[in-house]
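Sanity check

After download, print the first record. It should look like this:
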Amino acid sequence: MKRKVFLGVMAATMLLVVSGCGTLVKGKLESSKITIEKDKAKKLELKLNVGAGELEVHKGADDWVEGKIEYNYDKLKPKVLYKLQGDKGIGTIEQGNKPNNIKIGNIKNNWKLNLSNEIPIDLTVNSGASKTKLDLKGLNLSSLDVKAGIGDITIDLSGKWKKGFDVSLEMGVGKSTIILPKDVGVKIDSSKGIGKAEFVDFISKGNGVYVNEAYEKADVIINLNTEMGIGETIFKLQ
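Expected structure tokens:
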């Protein structure tokens, strides 16, 4: 209940920030190359912290992480932290501080990242006022934790998975689209939010639990624990 109240307050606050008065500051468009180099890690713990802007994540990196972030204000310059701890690589990519007295609509902060599929990844995504597309099919996920803020978000977990994993989703304000595999077992344990939730081609087990047709006989299962937010959330199979 506290999160629902918080989301409502945040939505109202952000509307004021976007539409309210502020000093127009236009910075030069800058670009930062993002690389977390491949090392001896056997697994990766990666956290992406985006405050405002756009985020896209795909597979296809030769190193652990590759990509580019474009921003139009120096304070938005991303920070990349990484260390090898035993056989686990621990990485964080985070946005710099949003400058004061600037409308969110004037911010350019576009993240395009590719991840390796060579080692298991515990992926955490914290998005603020952002448009987010996580195309995660084909990756080697061992867990996924997403906390969405304001803005539309699409998470694509379709395709074939060799191992099951747990997913934690806290939806925010906006439209959320979650694409899940039809040929791998899927179980969704959902809490009701203020907005609308639609479970396309899923079987209701009662008490907010939904499964796909493959679930009962599946050797590989993706377990989702979801907390709905404000807006529309669609779960569909592909």
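If your output differs, re-run the checksum step. Summary of this record's structure: Residues 42 and 87 are 5 Å apart (CA to CA).
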